[in-house]
Specification:
With 134 residues, the chain is mainly alpha-helical. It is 34% helix and 8% strand. The radius of gyration is 15 Å and the shape is globular.
C-alpha cells in the first residue's frame, strides 16, 4: 500500500473524460459534470445493498459487491436501459480499452461526500474469490 508497482501508473490527462464521452454528452454540458450527475442519479435509485459506506466515502456496486464492468453497468441500467450513467460507463470502458490496449476488469465507483474524505492508494480486492496480496 502507498507505492505503485511496475506497470501501475495513473496519468491524469486534461479532457480525457470529454474525449471518451464525445458524442454522448450534450454539447452544451461539461462531460465530467454530466457523468457525475448521471452516476449520482443512478446511485440514488439503486437497489438496497448496492450503495454502501466504506470509511468516509460511499461505493456503488451490485448487491454482491461485484465490480466487474458488466455487473456495474447492469446496476446503472437496471431502472432504465438507456440511462445516461450506463451509456457513459460503457463509453468510458470502451475508450479505455481502445486507448490503452487492455481489458477493463473492474470499475470502482467512489462517492466522496465532502473534502474530508479521500481515496488512499491501495490494492483493491474486487472479486469474491480474490484474497489480499494476490
Amino acid at each position: 500500500a502507498g507505492k505503485a508497482q511496475y506497470g501501475e501508473v495513473c496519468d491524469v490527462t486534461n479532457n480525457m473524460v470529454a474525449r471518451a464521452l464525445e458524442g454522448i454528452v450534450p454539447s452544451d454540458q461539461s462531460a465530467d459534470r454530466w457523468l457525475f450527475k448521471a452516476l449520482v442519479k443512478a446511485a440514488l435509485v439503486a437497489p438496497e445493498g448496492c450503495v454502501w459506506k466504506s470509511g468516509g466515502k460511499f461505493l456503488l456496486t451490485n448487491e454482491d459487491r461485484n465490480q466487474a464492468p458488466t455487473a456495474i453497468v447492469n446496476v446503472l441500467e437496471r431502472g432504465d436501459p438507456n440511462s445516461d450513467a450506463g451509456k457513459g460507463m460503457r463509453a468510458l470502458v470502451s475508450f479505455t480499452e481502445q486507448e490503452y490496449g487492455f481489458r477493463v476488469t473492474a470499475i470502482q465507483l467512489n462517492f466522496h461526500p465532502n473534502n474530508k474524505s479521500s481515496h488512499k492508494q491501495h490494492r483493491d480486492i474486487y472479486g469474491a474469490g480474490q484474497k489480499g496480496g494476490i
